[in-house]
Write a structure and sequence with these properties.
Blueprint: E1 2-5, E2 16-19, E3 29-39, H1 41-48, E4 64-72, E5 84-88, E6 97-101, E7 105-107, H2 114-118, H3 121-134, E8 142-145, H4 151-162, E9 166-171, H5 174-182, E10 187-190, H6 199-207, E11 213-218, H7 223-230, E12 232-240, H8 254-258, E13 262-265, H9 268-274, H10 276-291, E14 299-304, H11 308-316, E15 323-327
Parallel strand pairs: 8-9, 8-11, 9-10, 11-12, 12-13, 14-15
Antiparallel strand pairs: 1-2, 3-4, 3-6, 3-15, 4-5, 5-7
Helix pairs in contact: 3-4, 3-10, 6-7, 9-10
Length: about 325
């Protein structure tokens, strides 16, 4: 099988496309013919050795995929060859085949295609956990989504509307904001124009009639985080999802005292492992939203496996609009 291989920490151009032996499942595992795999920002950190999870070298990157089960281990009873599934985890997805523990494999809804399924678990799972469990978003509240045209950002816009919030999309260009508004955002903020240091804060205040945002979803970090926190209202919640800007902000904690604010970290993968019942409940609610037509995942960029460098660069250079997918020709 063809697979992307990481042999040393670094960037995408240090990866290689290798020909490996087809894997075989163990007693508690399944073998999946991968049709598509989702690329996420953490993948860029994993191959660089900068993520909390550091796999042994060499390894196949990629945390999520969708495909068809080819074979199952002797102890696997809930899955069978021919099942259409999606998989989750931290590594192994960027290959024509992958072996996964059965517990990390999830049957796909019949109405969901492989391209969508390959990019659904991380972006929508992360965003739903952030908004539901961490942000406790209520219908009628205002939700500001930073990086609103990226993978998790666009999912947060989509879910915010499905949950009944008033969604304000914030991004660095009008083109990206057009995408977010097409996904259902009610209002827009371009924080990429102008040199005013409080550009984001002032625009959030203006669009909320001075009240401030109830919830801010922040996968960007950098200078925007403090501006966003300053623009939250009483009992506002800032959700720390990631640092796509490359800069981890240092926020004065006295800001949380002024309006009873809270800053909540969002670490979806660990939460899903610690609370599997709640994870499954979220998943079924997400699938119900999807089958009811309330969610509209955007797969905007697809690359064949051989073009993995360009796919990675699309993320690291912040050119991604919606979900970036790798497809298999096999």
């Amino acid at each position: 099988m063809k697979a992307i291989l990481c042999t040393e920490p670094g960037t995408a151009d240090q990866l290689s496309l290798a020909e490996l032996d087809d894997p075989q499942p163990g007693p508690d595992e399944v073998l999946i013919d991968v049709h598509a795999a989702g690329l996420n920002f953490p993948d860029t950190l994993v191959i660089a050795g900068k993520y909390q999870f550091r796999p042994d070298m060499p390894f196949i990157p990629g945390g999520e995929a969708a495909g068809v089960i080819r074979a199952v281990g002797d102890n696997v009873k809930n899955l069978k060859p021919g099942d259409r599934v999606m998989s989750t985890g931290m590594v192994g997805a960027f290959a024509e085949q992958q072996v996964k523990p059965a517990r990390e494999v999830i049957p796909m809804p019949d109405s969901m295609g492989f391209d969508v399924g390959a990019g659904f678990l991380v972006t929508y799972g992360t965003s739903y956990y952030a908004l539901k469990q961490c942000g406790q978003l209520e219908a009628g509240e205002s939700l500001v989504v930073l990086g609103a045209a990226g993978g998790v950002g666009l999912a947060a816009v989509d879910l915010g509307k499905a949950m009944g919030a008033r969604v304000i999309a914030a991004a660095s260009s009008e083109e990206k904001l057009d995408i977010a508004c097409a996904a259902g955002a009610d209002l827009r903020i371009n924080y990429g124009k102008g040199d005013e240091p409080n550009n984001l804060r002032d625009q959030i205040k203006a669009l909320t009639d001075g009240k401030g945002a109830d919830v801010v979803y922040d996968p960007v970090g950098g200078d925007l985080s403090e501006q966003a926190l300053r623009a939250t209202g009483w009992d506002g919640r800032l959700l720390v999802v990631g640092f796509a800007s490359g800069t981890i902000p240092a926020i004065p904690l006295n800001l949380t005292l002024l309006k009873n604010n809270s800053i909540r970290g969002v670490f979806y993968g660990v939460w899903a492992q610690k609370f599997p019942a709640a994870f499954q409940e979220n998943l079924q609610e997400l699938f119900a939203f999807f089958e009811q037509g309330k969610l509209h995942p955007l797969v905007s960029q697809k690359f064949e496996l051989e073009h993995y460098v360009e796919a990675f660069n699309t993320l690291t250079e912040r050119r991604a609009k919606g979900k970036v997918i790798l497809t298999m020709s096999r």
